[in-house]
Amino acid sequence: MTNISFDLVDIIRTIQKQKRFILIITVAGVVLAGALLAIKQKKFKAEARFFVNNPLYGDRNTLFRAVDTRYVDYFGGDDDVDKILALAGSDTVRNRIIRNCQFQTIYKKDINDPKGYAELMSIFKKNFNIKRTEYKDVEISYVAYDPVTAANVTNMSVKVLEETYRQYYTYIKNGIYTSINDQVIKLDSSINSLTDTLANMRDQYGIYSIISPARQNVIVGEVKGGGKGYGRAIEEIQNIESIKDQLVADRAHYISALNEFHATTNSAMDFLKVITRALPPVQPAGLGTTLTLVAAALLSFFFSTLYVLMMAYFRKLNAVER
Hints:
Elements: H1 8-17, H2 19-39, E1 44-52, H3 60-63, H4 78-88, H5 91-100, H6 103-106, H7 114-127, E2 128-132, E3 138-144, H8 147-205, H9 230-264, E4 272-276, H10 289-321
Antiparallel strand pairs: 1-3, 1-4, 2-3
């Protein structure tokens, strides 16, 4: 079997012989790349960056703490960032973004048609990107043919994410608020009923002294009066008064809790802090004209050279076999 030699000298000689062909292919590649750049519609990429705030700072136990003074970090942890990334990939958030940004007008699709809606969701998914960085902030970007559209969609994505993320916590707090408020309404009814009962008994027996044993800080004076059933009336008033006083105390505690939970749902507390707002980009996305042409020239030169060398090697191989 004959060994075929195709060393560096052969490679250089082959390139020198076919340099005209290589040059033509390289120039053709550059021209083709330039033509494609001129024909292809330019895309623009807008970016925004934000930090995730720690949701514990909007918690009732943090805002109104009196004893526990544990340090709570202002910045959210990895778990909070994971929740933001999960929300960004949900259909609920994407649906709100495409509707708020009027995708049906931008991309000329019928959002009420299932097929058109699916195409709009696919367009958003293709051009939208969200990722965390090594500095624990989150970067959002969107690519569009119009720079203003790219910036608007990016900023709207941040807004919808913040509202959805905050709503997750406020929804739970509003549920607690409603539960406590219902209990306050029941307490109001019970207190009013007990008040009417006590008022009738005091008027009936003429007992107007404070005789509630639940009010430990009140010194009970001498109770004047007498007659049949007077002693039992005092005992009943004490029993009813102690229950009413406890319900009044519970009601005051519940109202205090209602105020605290209402404060934690205030929209003034943002759960995302934007550090870089998206602006309409000036330069199109991608390598740019110069870098694209240079890359096209290098790729054309490489593949044309590779083709020339392979053809020379096979010709040499066929010549030896014959």
